[in-house]
Design brief:
Keywords: Carboxypeptidase, Hydrolase, Metal-binding, Metalloprotease, Protease, Zinc
Structural class: mainly alpha
InterPro entries: Peptidase_M32_Taq (IPR001333)
CATH architecture of the largest domain: Orthogonal Bundle
Enzyme class: hydrolase
Cofactor: Zn(2+)
Strand order of the largest sheet: 1-3-2
Number of helices: 20
CATH topology of the largest domain: Neurolysin, domain 3
Number of domains: 2
Protein name: Metal-dependent carboxypeptidase
Number of strands: 3
Length: 491
């Protein structure tokens, strides 16, 4: 066995254990008895202790030092790059801290869910303060003398910096705000109406998941407070949620999570249980969920097919033709919830969250002032006041889980999706004809071949550039939004 072989054999066991830990998290948010929370927190801490010990093991460092990377092929060098990055980050974080973060965030998630249901930020604030303190400590350990938020970003988008985000957000905001103001000045299209049986929503969402290529033999669809995708390789699960008054919440949450899951299911099987066997970054991951949800799922072609499907399942939905349905699916309106936001305003929600979490980690204010900071910023950005905590600071699960640095990847994903959609339409000119029949195959096949199958082979921006033939930029996304909503709202 070569040194590289020994490293990869060891790493496969680490990857397998990480999947087991992820399954514990999936169970906690879907099926775990409510009273099991304290025990699950200890289980998660124990698993993280095992994983952390494996990542910092002296032999990993020895193998990495001994490997001659020049003798490896591209795949081998990429595997080593990921393992080295993980090892170097892990050795900076004390084992005690790593386990405590796992323990507290497991407990925090349950407290968040209950506080959200009760619209009671004060009930959540104490445990969130614990999470923030731990993440500040972790960020300081990772950053050394550098920027803490830059260090946190590397867990979700390697190579990204706060300065680069400032440039991107600065380029996006003026055109997004101008488009929003123009659209909101126009009459609002009608939405669907009626009561939509939630069991039928779940049945339709499972059908749509398969329409988008989700392999139910290697996955499943369940319900959760906050939809998510979990797993990799041969076991990739998704969740969604239902509302009797808003079927789009369920259907488009499902399509979004299917985008994530299809990325994981589409990776080359040769990479199973290796660092290349998962999506390369959350920004690239979000490019898949957002292009499935928006450029494909909310397109005029696909909504024409979905209109007929919904009427077949629910009967009268309050809209008489496919064009009115397309307008309803893409309706721009005032609202509080990020996951229910239209494409025009979605990134403005992300800019708000990114600025707040950077300020919180940077000690510009403390957790006790977070709700006030959120409400003040929301009023300034959107022009109306938050009415309750579940529509404001409590709406997202991310901070309860300690995912500081995650939010910007949603906007990065939208930007990447804009680039990918333009490239896909150049490569697959008949994509709309297929979508109008409910056939996503030409689009999803192009995405699988161009991006998904490669997993973590390339760095994030290189992954997008290789698929598109050009470096990623915000231009294609902004042009797409201007064209689509300009036509919808006769601007």
């Amino acid at each position: 066995m070569t040194t590289y072989d020994a490293l990869m054999s060891y790493q496969r066991e680490t990857e397998a254990l990480a999947q087991v830990a992820g399954r514990l998290g999936w169970d906690q948010e879907t099926m775990m008895p409510r009273g099991a929370g304290p025990q699950r927190a200890e289980e998660m801490a124990a698993m993280e202790g095992v994983l952390h010990a494996r990542r910092i093991a002296p032999e990993v460092g020895e193998w990495l030092a001994a490997i001659d990377e020049a003798a490896l092929d591209d795949v081998g060098r990429a595997q080593v790059r990921h393992i080295r990055r993980s090892h170097e980050r892990a050795v900076k974080v004390p084992a005690r801290l790593s386990a405590e973060i796992a323990r507290v965030t497991s407990r925090s998630q349950g407290i968040w869910a209950e506080a959200r249901a009760e619209n009671d930020f004060a009930a959540f604030a104490p445990v969130l303060a614990e999470v923030v303190a731990l993440k500040r400590e972790e960020g300081a350990a990772l950053a050394a003398e550098g920027d803490v938020y830059d260090a946190m970003l590397q867990d979700y988008e390697p190579g990204m910096t706060g300065a680069a985000l400032d440039d991107l957000f600065g380029a996006l905001r003026p055109r997004l705000v101008a488009l929003r103001e123009a659209v909101l000045g126009k009459p609002e299209p009608a939405g669907v109406s009626g009561s939509f049986d939630e069991a039928l929503q779940m049945k339709l969402s499972r059908r749509i998941a398969q329409v988008f290529g989700y392999d139910m033999k290697r996955g499943r669809v369940d319900k959760a407070v906050h939809p998510f995708s979990s797993g990799a390789g041969l076991d990739v699960r998704i969740t969604t949620r239902t509302s009797a008054e808003d079927p789009f919440n369920c259907l488009y949450s499902t399509i979004h999570e299917v985008g994530h899951a299809s990325y994981e299911q589409g990776i080359d099987p040769a990479y199973l249980l290796t660092p290349l066997g998962s999506g390369v970054s959350m920004g690239v991951h979000e490019s898949q969920s957002r292009i499935y949800e928006n450029q494909l799922g909310r397109s005029r072609a696909f909504t024409g097919w979905l209109f007929d499907e919904m009427r077949g399942v629910f009967g009268d939905i309050g809209l008489t033709d496919a064009e009115a349905f397309y307008a309803a699916v893409n309706r721009v309106q005032k609202g509080y919830i990020r996951t229910e936001s239209d494409e025009v305003q979605y990134n403005l929600h992300i800019l708000l969250r990114t600025d707040l979490e950077r300020a919180l980690l940077g000690r510009e204010f403390e957790v006790e002032h977070l709700e006030e900071a959120w409400n003040t910023r929301f009023l300034a950005d959107f022009g109306y006041a938050v009415d309750k905590a579940s529509n404001g600071v409590l709406q997202d699960v991310h901070w309860s889980l300690g995912l500081f640095g995650y939010f910007p990847t949603y906007t990065l994903g939208n930007v990447y999706a804009g680039c990918l959609a333009a490239a896909m339409r150049r490569a697959v000119p008949d994509v709309d004809a297929a979508l109008s029949r409910g056939d996503t195959g030409p689009a999803t096949h192009w995405l699988r071949q161009s991006l998904q199958s490669h997993g973590g082979l390339r760095e994030p921006r290189d992954t997008i550039a290789e698929a598109c033939g050009t470096a990623p930029s915000e231009g294609p996304l902004l042009d797409y939004l201007d064209e689509k909503f300009g036509a919808l709202y006769d601007l």
